Amino acid sequence: MLDRSTYQTIQTGQPPAAEPVEADLLDLFVTLWRHKWVIAICAAIVGLIVGYYAFAVASPKYVATAALALQARTERVVDLDSVMPGLSTDLPVLNTEIEVIRSRQLLEQLVTELDLLGDPEFNKDLRPEPIISLQRFGLEADPSPATTIDETVSAVADAIAVNNLPSTYVFHIRVKTGDPQKSALIANTLAQLYIEDQIDTRFQATENAIDWLSQRVATLELDIIAKENQVKELRAASQFGSAEALQALNRQSKDMRSRLADIRIRQVSTKARLTRIEALRQGGDVQQAAELADPALDHLAEAVTANTSGLPSQFNARLQNLHAETTAELSRLTQQATGLEASLATLQKAFESQSADLVRLRQLERDANATSVLYETFLARFKETAVQRGLQQADSRILSKATPGEYAEPARVRILAISILLGAVVGAALILFRLRLQTGLFRTAEELEAQSGLPVIGQFPRIQVRDRRQLVPYLRDRPTSVASEAVRNLRTSLLLWDLEAPPQIILISSAVPGEGKTTNAIALAQNLAGLDKRVLLVEGDIRRRTFHQYFPDCPDTGLLAAISGKQPLKQVIRHDAVLGADVLAGETSDVNAADVFSSACFRAFLRELRAHYDHIVIDSPPVLVVPDARIIGQSADAILFSVAWNRTTRTQVADALQQFSSINLSVTGLVLSQIDVARAWKYGGAGGYGTYPQYYDA
């Protein structure tokens, strides 16, 4: 679509200055104020509908509140640890208690206690069956008793709200029903059921603890007896006397191992001595006899060394004796070691056996002692729990009972006020939506100028005549009417457009048919004739030929005959006394109109008209329908473009102006025609039309 900036760029070759865009809230308020009765009617309709429902149809609801206080510390009659300690005051615990109060278990007890299954407010099966329902048409089976109970409990849950007051241990149970007494009864009953549930829970926990502790005490008692019997049997079967005797065996084993080690050392030494003796006997070095540490043998060895003749018999005899003694010593040591090893093995076996028995005995004794301690603990706990059986108390108490409920809903005055406000908003939305749907149309001269970039030099109101033949008499008989003044404004703007050379040939066109261009052309011709000017009104739209509807006595021949020269101009022109100007109507022809207006005969015809008339007003066809207006416009001094108020679209105007600019034709000005003054005032586009009657009446 061709907007104002684009058109100005085409016309002048320079882009227009940027214009600030801002939301005019005042115009929006004025527009809504002009439609205030629509807004008031919408507000009244919505207010009446919602008010009727709130005051006549909606069932009233009453709220009753019962208060519960959570006991932060539970006083004890006896100073014993409780099997089930008092509730903590942590936030999660408080929230848990709220859910306990609203639990289905308590609500089912509440339904049973108060027989709410027989209350139609909660049991929908007791209400009258609606006219349209699935059950009536057999599309849904009747609910089962379990389903009825579940739905009733759910309905009761929806009527109950439980909350904790901030920074306190106080719960509020709020019940909302259609009866104030019923609301109080349900709130108080639910609070009492919650207290009883706490007591029952504690009592049941105590009974379960007593049963479990009694079983554990009996089991532990039998376990102690069994472990003590095992200790006695082990003591009777074991051979050790005591731990001290076991320590003595351990010391004896150590002494025996020490003696055995000495004997084995002596065995090694004796075997080495015997080896050296055997080496000397077999002819070894005599000087090695010193290693045997035998004085007699050492003396004989020195004698043998001095006597080179050989080893004497005494030396050999001494070696023989030493060999026999050493062999006997080795045999004795071997026997002693064997005896000690056997004794040590027997002693070690006895020590290990008695040591294992002692460890097992001590383990059995520890188990028996531990079981005995556990038995004593459980026995004491069992006695304490048995004492608490009759001392159970609830963790909460009723702080205040609910009184008959107070009216809660519907908030009639508030609903009525909101509904009226909502109705007003709906009315305003409808108005704005309607305006939004019409954003593609022109309702003010400012919008048309802003969109096209051309000045609006005339604004014509809708002329209320029943027949087209009444148009000219209307303009003559009502010279002070709004329409007449609008034509004068257009005439003044047009003539003052160029003071040195006022336009002589004035072309009036539009984008599409029905935009009031013919009415504008006739009104402008009548007004120019009022200045004692010679004026000719030409019907350039020879395809439709509507002048016969305005001027019934027009001749059959007209424009085409004059252009072609078949008839003189004076014979085809008719002077209308009411109009005060000459009229040249079109005529039917097989010749294409565009070809006629493009001919040299037509241009010569216009030059002839210039010589006889001060102003020639040509009513041309719509630009977007046929090219006639653009062809005639080549010879026109001024081009007026008519735009129908609240009818012609922006696209049509932009496309039509583009048609002119494409052949370098400049539109002199725009005329906003067929304005509905009463409606235009609502859109803020009536301009000064509303002031004309008051001005002339004054």
Q: If you had to describe this structure to a student in words, what would you say it looks like?
A:
The chain has 698 residues and is of the alpha/beta class. It has four domains: 1-13 and 27-58 and 411-437, no CATH class; 60-198 and 393-409, Bacterial polysaccharide co-polymerase-like (2-Layer Sandwich); 243-388; 454-697, Rossmann fold. Helices cover 56% and strands 11% of the residues. Strands 6-13-12-7-11-8-10-9 form an eight-stranded mixed beta sheet, sandwiched between helices. Strand 12 (638-644), helix 22 and strand 13 form a beta-alpha-beta unit. Helix 14 crosses helix 15 (517-529). The longest helix has 76 residues, at 313-388. The protein is elongated. 28% of the residues are buried.
The residue-averaged pLDDT reads: 80
Q: Give the strand content.
A: 5-15%
Backbone shape: elongated
Which CATH architecture of the largest domain?
A: 3-Layer(aba) Sandwich
Q: Helix amount, in percent?
A: 55-70%
CATH class of the largest domain: Alpha Beta
- The total count of helices amounts to 24
Strands, total number: 13
Low-confidence stretches: 1-23, 73-80, 685-698
Give the class from helix and strand content and strand pairing.
alpha/beta
The CATH homologous superfamily of the largest domain corresponds to P-loop containing nucleotide triphosphate hydrolases
Question: What's the structural domain tally?
Answer: 4
Query: What would you report as the Rg, rounded to the nearest angstrom?
Result: 65 Å
Query: What order do the strands of the largest sheet run in, or round the barrel if closed?
Result: 6-13-12-7-11-8-10-9
CATH topology heading of the largest domain = Rossmann fold
For the termini, the CA-CA separation is 45 Å
Main β sheet profile: 8 strands, mixed
